[in-house]
Amino acid sequence: MWCHDIGREQASNKPLLKIVFQVMMRLFSPRKTTLLFVIRDKTKTPFEYLEPILREDIQKIWDTVSKPLAHMDTPLSEFFNVEVTALSSFEEREEQFKEQVAQLRQRFFNSIYPGGIAGDRRAVVPASGFSFSTQQIWKVIKENRDLDLPAHKVMVATVRCEEIANEKFSLLASDEDWLALEQAVHAGPVQGFGRKLSSILDAYLSEYDMEAVYFEEGVRNAKRLLLKSKALQLVHPAYITLLGHLRSSALMNFKIQLEQKLSRGEGFVASVNSCMQSSTLEFDKGCSDAVIKHADWDASKIREKLQRDMQAHASSVRAEKLSQLIAKFEKQLSARLGEPVESLFDTGGKDTWASIRRLLRREADGAVSGFSTAAAGFELDQEGFGKMVQNLRDYARSVVVKEAREQAGKAVIHMKDKFTMVFNHDNDSLPRVWTGKEDIKAITHEARSAAVSILSVLAAVRLDEKPDKIENVLSSMLIDGSVAISSRSRGAGIIGDPLASSTWEGVPPENTLISPVQCKSIWRTFTAETEYVVTQAISAREAYKRSNNWLPPAWAIMAMAVLGFNEFMFLLRNPLYMLALFVIYLFGRAIWEQMDIPGEFRNGTMAGLISVASRFFPTVMILLRQLAAKAQGHPAHEPARHTQTLASQSFRSQTPTRTSTSTSTMDSSVSSNDSSETGVEYSSPQLTRRRVTNVEHEEFS
């Protein structure tokens, strides 16, 4: 054995030595047979190190072989005498090698001498019995399979055919065409892969057949099958890679075709079936092109994986499309329910929830109808479709409930808006003017009733059309201050505040938006924030009464009548004084109306006095000028508008620091004649003074 083969399994013939040990123990009794190990081309490693390693390996082989029961504990030394020698390298030390070989030759020449390599010679056969002994040995060899070695022809064929097969396999592994084909397969699908690879394999198998044609047929065919198997194992990864490319390509085409068909509006199930059939045919065509005639490889597993991948992608696309479809209709429901429901809550009324129910039913039915039409191409099963429709209806309901909860959070704002609308506007929706004739208490009661109606609408969700007593309870407790206890409650002995509870009678907790306790708190906040509006209305009414009542109190009138009786009688006895007083009254009345004395004093006493003082003399002069002109039979050359401008300019020149409010008040029109002579009408500062058309035409004609 070679020095570098020490410790190796096959190179050191350990299996053969194991068979020798087993046969020796089974066929022969213990005898000293010498095992001489000759180590070729000894290296620089000292022989003292190599020999123990070799002996240790031999002992391990002996310990591992199966032994007959009779020799179970028999040591190796009973059967074999192990010796080890070493020879130097012939190439490096030729002389020393020849000398060592000569010494080894002498040992064989003298093997039967005492101490020679022939062993203990206990089984020595005499020369006369050599023929019979040889026959017996041959018989044992033929009968024992372990010793029945093949014929020389078979052995040669085995060795040579194996060498040829290994050579051809090595050439195949390094073949440029094969390497190029393998590299191309790793890059992507290759057209004609099976044909090209079959051609390469045919070439090397043909070469093997040509070189091994003269060797034993059985051995030749066996080695050919072995070569073919090894070659197929070499190319099989490339074949699997190619199938992977074909599967990926078919799957990608399936995805692209499916997306195109769906974008054109074709049915989902029909599109999936068509695309799967097309992609599967494409894959099968590629597999047919990749078939190698020397192999019977099955691509069914890759095909099944392709179908599973396509089904998985179709399922994901289906789920995505359905999700998009549902999201679309949910968005539509949110848009069509959100603002209308909010508007219905803003208006408020007894039929608010009825209107919301009608709106919800109409929009939900429309969304379900549209979804049913759009989902027809998916061919959903009845159970799945029904579940999606129910989810859509539930979503529509949730939109309404969510909006109701948001509006319930703004209950105080809605109540204040409703109260202000009813309180400050009459039945014709016109702004209310507090003239003193209105019944503020009744109006306040009406406005608060409207606010309670809004609160009752926002207190609970009423999508199931079940009657409740929320509005009656709120009205009786918050407005009237009492509540009619139901007969069931009275029979059960329940007497107390219905608003001192967290739930409404007959209303499920999940439908409660504002609990009774919260209603009481909201009402307290509402009344506190609206009391100012009522107070302002009362103050405005009282102020209006005071501004339109210029008569002194009744006691003052009686005192004036009693104390001024003598003066009154004096006037009756002197008609000229009476006429003079009447003229003065008319002149004063004209000045009163012309200057709009009440309007001037609305901006304050001091501002009114300043305005009247500044305008009094110009107004008197204007009136006198107009009277003189009429007495002469000539119309006044200055129209009323010019008169107004002069008075205003005179006033501005005298009081340059007046505010804009006082200026607007003082710029009211001034007329020179009283109402009986000129046909001029006078109104409050808020109204526009107008001149009768026919009188004005006479003056300017």
From TrEMBL:
Stretches for region Disordered: 633-701
Biased amino acid composition, Low complexity: 648-678
Statement: the UniProt record of this protein carries the keyword Hydrolase: yes
UniProt keyword terms in alphabetical order: Endoplasmic reticulum, GTP-binding, Hydrolase, Membrane, Nucleotide-binding, Transmembrane, Transmembrane helix
Lineage top rank: taxon: Eukaryota
Domain GB1/RHD3-type G: 1-121
Transmembrane segments: 576-592
Cross-referenced InterPro entries: G_GB1_RHD3_dom, RHD3/Sey1, Sey1/RHD3-like_3HB
Family: Belongs to the TRAFAC class dynamin-like GTPase superfamily. GB1/RHD3 GTPase family.
Listed name of the protein: Protein ROOT HAIR DEFECTIVE 3 homolog 2 isoform X3
Native source organism of the sequence: Coffea arabica
Organism lineage string: Eukaryota, Viridiplantae, Streptophyta, Embryophyta, Tracheophyta
Gene: LOC113708569
